[in-house]
Write a structure and sequence with these properties.
Elements (H helix, E strand, L loop, with lengths): L2 H28 L1 H34 L2 E6 L5 H9 L2 E5 L4 H7 L4 E4 L13 E4 L7 H25 L23 H6 L2 H9 L4 H14 L2 H5 L5 H38 L8 H28 L3 H10 L2 H12 L6 H4 L4 H11 L6 H27 L8
Parallel strand pairs: 1-2, 1-3
Antiparallel strand pairs: 3-4
Length: 399
């Protein structure tokens, strides 16, 4: 008999928070702007990455399909080299009047300089004028360097045979390159960019809701009546946080689905790109991201609550996604290993697991649990800070 009031009291907070959540969800679902932002924002990252992938794929396919023509100075001094290049699909053409400026401005990818003393000799020095700052020239530069090395080895072998020596002495150690990466392809680099884009979206998806639920209501004068209602401040905040969390959840579902569909369509239409991560990978990434979504929402609520105006809150929350996204960009160029300390660091742990999932590696369940626990604890800390801010009614009178 005595347990009944306790049960009612224990369930009261859930009922109060649910009422707030349903009320806020109903209001924002009627708001076309909120719905539009919830659909448009998640599509920006996948659309941007898909466009970059199309551009890069088209550029590389054009370079691969076209006959390479290399500007050269003094080609007449090395007819054997010219013939070797021609046999391998590369023609040498006269260089521009100012070769250094031509390479620097991108008019030609590189310039070969063959000195006059190369005439009639097997041993001579070839100079290459290149600009390593231009990534578009990388393919041409690598091709020419490989051909020069091949011609040098062939010449050395011929000279060794003429002296009745073992040609193997020229290269006593044979190096064989084995790429152990999953599906080595130019697309793999772009797929690594999914990690920073996902991190950016996690901290952006519900930002407009967090601002509207705190600083926005304060400016409209609708927050003070809510605070005077017979509801605990933390119950009110829990309902508001739940609303922002559900919108973030929806944004991430749209974002992951868009990544799978857009990148899959680009890869299928390219005829040469490696396929993107499969649906199971994106589902696993979504599971990994759930605690991070909770952290993002509680941070957004706290920052928006402490901001003096709605415009100020929008500025802060507009910059917030950049902070976790920047390390993600670094990880795209240098994927990290699996470390417990990194898994225990909120944000870094999720990025590490995103990177592993995208590259086809398994995620350590212990790292997943550790990351979820530490991220949830930090989210709880921000939630308690927000509760403290809500109890200080003066903060809602600032404008």
């Amino acid at each position: 008999m005595t347990a009944r009031p306790t049960e009612k009291a224990g369930g009261r907070w859930l009922r109060h928070s649910t009422v707030v959540l349903v009320k806020e969800m109903r209001d924002h679902l009627r708001d076309r702007r909120s719905l539009l932002l919830g659909l448009v924002y998640p599509l920006l990252g996948p659309a941007l990455l898909g466009g970059l992938l199309i551009f890069a794929s088209t550029n590389f396919q054009r370079q691969a399909g076209a006959e390479l023509s290399v500007a050269a100075i003094g080609a007449e001094h090395a007819p054997g080299l010219v013939e070797f290049f021609k046999e391998n699909g590369v023609t040498l053409k006269p260089a521009p009047a100012n070769p250094r400026a031509a390479v620097r401005t991108g008019k030609v990818p590189l310039v070969l300089v063959i000195p006059p003393e190369a005439a009639g000799r097997d041993r001579f020095t070839v100079r290459m004028l290149i600009d390593l700052n231009r990534m578009a020239n990388a393919s041409s530069t690598v091709t020419v360097m490989e051909l020069l090395n091949a011609f040098s080895k062939r010449t050395a072998r011929r000279l060794m045979e003429a002296q009745k020596l073992d040609p193997g002495m020229v290269q006593p150690i044979v190096i064989e390159h084995i790429n152990v990466a999953h599906k080595p392809n130019i697309a793999s680099f772009f797929y690594n960019m999914i990690t920073p884009l996902v991190m950016f979206m996690v901290f952006l998806g519900g930002a407009h809701i967090a601002v509207d639920l705190t600083a926005g209501e304060r400016e409209r004068g609708s927050l003070e009546p809510l605070l005077s209602a017979p509801v605990e401040r933390w119950e009110l905040l829990l309902g508001k946080s739940g609303t922002a969390f559900l919108f973030t959840l929806f944004s991430m579902i749209v974002s992951f689905a868009a990544f799978r569909v857009i990148l899959g369509a680009v890869a299928a239409g390219s005829g040469g790109l490696a396929p993107p991560p499969d649906t199971r990978v994106f589902i696993d990434m979504f599971v990994v991201a759930v605690p991070l979504m909770g952290l993002a929402v509680t941070m957004q609520i706290a920052i928006a609550a402490v901001s003096r105006s709605m415009k100020e809150a929008q500025i802060y929350l507009g910059l917030l996604p950049v902070i976790p996204a920047l390390p993600g960009v670094a990880m795209a160029f240098s994927p990290p290993g699996a470390y417990a300390w990194m898994a225990a660091t909120p944000g870094f742990g999720q990025m590490m697991m995103f990177s592993h999932l995208i590259s086809g590696q398994e995620v350590d369940p212990a790292h997943l649990a550790l990351s979820a626990i530490t991220t949830t604890l930090l989210a709880l800390a921000f939630f308690l800070w927000s509760v403290h801010l809500f109890k200080r009614e003066k903060i809602f009178l600032l404008g």
